[in-house]
Every structure is written in structure tokens, then in C-alpha cells.
Design brief:
The protein is mainly α. It has a two-stranded antiparallel ribbon with strand order 1-2. Helix 1 crosses helix 2 and helix 2 packs across helix 3. The protein starts with 10 loop residues before the first helix and ends with a strand.
Length: 164
């Protein structure tokens, strides 16, 4: 535990880290997609674009989730957090454990379920829905005195700057 944990990181640093992490997620998805294409001999989709394998999307989710969870638990920083010198901690400034990390990940991933509205609406709406969901999760960070997003509140975590 830090004797006097630093004040929470500013919202702009947090949002900048999210942009960087989005690039890391795209890279992870591309590598997993390539490996899946190689494993299936290029037969992931049929001629109409329908997914042929049940395991592909869960594998993508596990890979991206593992990136975030392992980053938070093993050092408190994702690749996007490193250049902005911020990290995930508990409220006392201690490292995040597996339980807090899993809660944080589960709540942060909830907006992905909004893609399931696709059969009820257009593809465009189904793709925008998670982005709106994540914006809703992050909005409290702009007004909360400890700058916590909803997934931080649920997990008891905070984003703090690294000590100089």
C-alpha cells in the first residue's frame, strides 16, 4: 500500500489511453483472426459471410479479455496506459487482484452485449450501440471526485498516475 496514494488521473489521460488500447485490441483481433484462418484452412466463413465455426467469436473475446485482465493484475497497466503513466489500483492505491480485475472486466464488457440487438435493428445501430454503452460507462469519470467510471465503481478500482 502506498502511504499517500496520488490523486486520481485526469479524465483526458484515461481517454487517451483508451484510444491507444483500441489500437492494441485491433492488433489482437487481427492476430487471432489470422491464426483462426490458418487453423481452418481459410474456412471461417461461407460464401454468404456466415460464420462456420462456433469457437471463433468466443476465442476473440477471451483473447481481448485476457489482454486487459493480465495487464491490470500484472503491473496495473495496459499498453495504452504506459505512455500516459497511469495505472489501475484499488481505492488505497494497492495493486488490483484477480477478483477486482474480473469484476472490472465483466462490467466493462457489458456494452458488447448490445451487438445482440442486430436482429431487431440495423447492423449500423448494432455496431454503434456498444460505443454508446461504453460512453455511458465512462461518463461518471467526468464528474466523480475520484474520476471513477461505472466499472471502477463496481470493482472498487481507480485510475491513478504513476509516482514520479
Amino acid at each position: 500500500m502506498l502511504p499517500n496514494p496520488p490523486a486520481p488521473a485526469s479524465a483526458w489521460r484515461r481517454f487517451a489511453a483508451i484510444v491507444y488500447d483500441a489500437l492494441a485490441v485491433v492488433a489482437i483481433v487481427m492476430v487471432v483472426g489470422l491464426l483462426a484462418q490458418m487453423a481452418t484452412g481459410g474456412q471461417l466463413f461461407d460464401a454468404h459471410g456466415h460464420l462456420l465455426t462456433w469457437w471463433y467469436q468466443p476465442l476473440q473475446g477471451v483473447a481481448v479479455g485476457a489482454y486487459f485482465l493480465l495487464s491490470w493484475v500484472r503491473g496495473g497497466q495496459t499498453l495504452g496506459m504506459r505512455p500516459w503513466r497511469i495505472r489501475v489500483t484499488d481505492a488505497r492505491g494497492d495493486a488490483v487482484g484477480w477478483r477486482r480485475g474480473l469484476v472490472r472486466l465483466a462490467v466493462a464488457a457489458l456494452p458488447l452485449a448490445l451487438v445482440l440487438i442486430f436482429p431487431l435493428t440495423s447492423l449500423r445501430a448494432a455496431l454503434w450501440a456498444p460505443l454508446v454503452g461504453w460512453a455511458i460507462l465512462l461518463l461518471p469519470a467526468l464528474v466523480d471526485r475520484r474520476r471513477r467510471a461505472l466499472h471502477d465503481m463496481a470493482a472498487g478500482t481507480e485510475i491513478r498516475p504513476l509516482a514520479p
